[in-house]
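Box 3.1 A note on notation
Throughout this textbook, protein chains are presented in two layers. The first layer is the amino acid sequence; the second is a token string describing backbone geometry. Keep the layers aligned when reading.
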Amino acid sequence: MQVFEVLDTNCVKVGLESRTKDGALRELVDLVGRSSQVSSGELDKIYEKLKKREEKGSTALGDGVAIPHSAVPGMKDFVMALAVSKRGIPFEALDKKKVQILAVIVGPEGKPKEHIQLLAKLSHVFRSSEVRRRLVNSPTSLGLYETFMSRCRAHETAGGDRSKKQKVVILQVQTRSLFDEIVEVLADLGVGGVSVMESTGMKGSFSRMPLFADFIHFFGDHSDDGHTIIFTVYEDNVDDVLTELEEVTGDLDTHSGAMMIVLEPWLIKGSLDLI
């Protein structure tokens, strides 16, 4: 599922007028209603579903961004809208900042994989402070659309074509924040069937062995807890995955908190892709 498939230029707006969260939701629903995929009779239902989703917890990500979203009974296709509020809107964000960039996703029930992938794509785009600045400063709706779309990828790294040759990728990540960003990148790329294992490094082992007590300080104050991530990708897409990961980690040849290993499997049979 790619963003260009679900975001129509008619569903983009610079200058939301609402100053409240509820008012913003209604404006976003009106934008969604501009799509040819949505009938006017569905708008009230979409609004109610978005409102109920917000009651579970704010969809504000922080840094002035919110992504209201919900599955809506009866919808056949995903639809997205994008808008900017110059003044900002209180959205109950954890960082207490007003929201200026709002992207809404609504779509059919029973398609959680596509829903998650779209959310991850948007979240990844909005992580960049430079992108957020450019979006907020877009002078026109068309400019907002073009700036946003220029940052959205169109990759297929793994999927249901078992005839394509695949590689096994193992990632070892040492920090929780980096792990969260990498998981987001993988979801953005459409990588499914990911296995995650918690792991510990040598620091924890040495700390329990008096013989090596003199060397514990060499490990510094960094946490010894890590995560091992295992997944498969098409052989032709390994370089794409590496490129996207290094946008988060920096050059892995010089990064000491993450490592990527690519293996040639003797046999791959079955799938861990559950959604």
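The beta strands are 7-14, 60-62, 65-66, 69-71, 79-89, 99-107, 166-173, 195-200, 225-234, 258-263. The mean pLDDT is 85.
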